[in-house]
Amino acid sequence: MRLSLAGFGILVMTVVATPAALPPPDKLPSVAEFPDVLAMRDGTKITSKKDWEEKRRPELKELFQHYMYGRYPHLTEPVKVVVTEKVLFEDTQALGGAGTLREVEVSFSESQWPKIYLLIATPNGKVPAACFVGPNFGGNHLLTSHEKVRIPTAWVPANYPGVEKGTNKATAAGRGKQASTWPLQQIVEKGYAVATFYCGDIQPDRPDVREGMRATLPVYKGDAPLDETATVMWWAWGCHRAVDFLVTDKSIDAKRLAVVGHSRLGKTALLAGAFDDRIAVVIPHQSGCGGAGPSRSKNEKAETVKRITTAFPHWFCGHFRAFGSDTTKIPFDQHALVAICAPRPVLLTNAEDDQWANPSGQFDVLTAAAPAYKLYGDTKPVADKMPEQGKLSDDRLGYFIRAGKHSMTPDDWKAFTQFADKWLK
């Protein structure tokens, strides 16, 4: 049980399962198939939207925090977003004259928290616009050759263009080298805005370093709690702070926001969408294991929980690593994270050659999430079968798979905007 004050002294009480009430992973029952998304932990069956929203949905959020992504940070602290008066730059004739490009520094009430630098592209003459928001891998400067776009100062992985080996510092040599991953001009010409930030400004993607937002957590003499906030959760939290700004921006339609991310940032996009109802559409692209790919995988070519938690232990909390040898003990699967998004549209996108991300398993996840959507009156939220390659299924629980490999391309963005054309206009 958590107590919080909201409004004018009104006491708001939210009842959730406390960590003390949740058993350690090895004491959980074994469930071979996807756990029933409408069944509470005590077996009670959920049959109404009211009970889903008041009982099962909060329970699932608690389970995902405790056993997989770690605690949602700073739950007891009011988070105030303060936008600097000075926009870092603004070019009203950018992107071939189709849009306005600007960069905004977003800071917080807590001065020790790192800042977010939002690169925002809006279509000229079409505001307020629906907006795609999400983190990028190596810095805003990789997405455009515009010389005024800031170069990140945080640690950047060495495999991104223009990064100095040994120091892991981004340089101007990377400008525009990954513009096809977030094709800004293509997006604004379709009438949409884009807002993106470097994920490492919130939390650099390396373990065991107390930097970024991880540096705001307590330092323990012994081991950290097994449900301590993990990196994917920090990135999702960063998406929410970007949304805090976007809902105040007059050029953006606050009710038409879509979160997007690729690969590990696709995991981030799904988690961010599940934990923030202000996000209207959720698009985790090739998110795989730990995202929209099921932990109980039937695809022998897909990444496993054991593999991902060994290679990238910092992406998830300590409890999740314990499930590597037996995923049947996980008290949920990724269909439940999709279900938390109900009734908002979710689009899962994949590539045929990227079996590591488990494309077929992701479609199974959509099918298993459908019962939650049906509580909201959508009797057929997902297609009867996985659509053929290159054909978008634009149901509320949508799906798209193309030829090719693990990447985010302009063709993927065509699918994103086509889905948005249905659900955001």
UniProtKB/TrEMBL annotation:
Coiled coil: none annotated. Pfam families: GCE_fung. Residues 187-377 form the 4-O-methyl-glucuronoyl methylesterase-like domain. It comes from the Bacteria. The keyword Transcription does not apply. SUPFAM superfamilies: alpha/beta-Hydrolases. Keywords: Hydrolase, Serine esterase, Signal. One of its GO terms (molecular function) is carboxylic ester hydrolase activity. This is 4-O-methyl-glucuronoyl methylesterase-like domain-containing protein. It comes from Gemmata massiliana.
